[in-house]
Design a protein that fits this description.
single chain, alpha+beta, 8-stranded antiparallel beta barrel, 3 helices, 21% helix
Length: 160
């Protein structure tokens, strides 16, 4: 009988731990999507959950002061390409923060897509989801800058 009186409180204690719900999971603090929080250089590291193919890349540098960007990318061409332009951020009540942009030169117009920016973390990563295709997700991480060999390659390509 003594054993029973020792086991019952122990079982109740263990049951109490099991019954606790994890509703109070630690939430990761995210940053507001503003020009100041986007300011700097970001590297695309994943597209739809997959790492980029070898030899492809995208770096984008945002300048908060005048809401401009410079992008170095190599996806649809055997050569590196450079784009520049302006960007804007709007807040949608349903979707959250949406980033869109306009190119200065070569493409002569708006970005093909607008992007819902989520999970902008102080640690230096963010997710971009195409507004009209929620299955198209890109992950960017903050980096020190665009590698010099990529900058040089685009200068050779553009003749600067």
């Amino acid at each position: 009988m003594r054993i029973l009186f020792r086991i019952i409180p122990l079982c109740m204690l263990l049951l109490g731990f099991v019954a606790c719900d994890d509703e109070d999971e630690a939430k990761v603090e995210t940053l507001e999507v503003t020009p100041a929080n986007l300011n700097g250089t970001w590297q695309l590291v994943e597209w739809n959950g997959e790492s980029l193919a070898e030899g492809t890349y995208c770096y984008i540098t945002f300048v908060r002061r005048d809401k401009t960007f410079q992008m170095y990318q190599k996806f649809d061409s055997m050569y590196a390409r450079f784009f520049s332009g302006t960007f804007e951020i709007e807040k949608d009540d349903d979707l959250g923060y949406i980033v869109s942009g306009k190119y200065d030169y070569s493409l002569g117009g708006r970005w093909n897509n607008s992007y819902v920016v989520t999970d902008l973390l102080p640690s230096g990563s963010m997710l971009w989801t195409v507004k009209d295709d929620m299955g198209d997700v890109s992950k960017y991480v903050r980096c020190d800058g665009v590698p010099s060999d990529i900058v040089e390659e685009t200068e050779v390509d553009t003749g600067n």
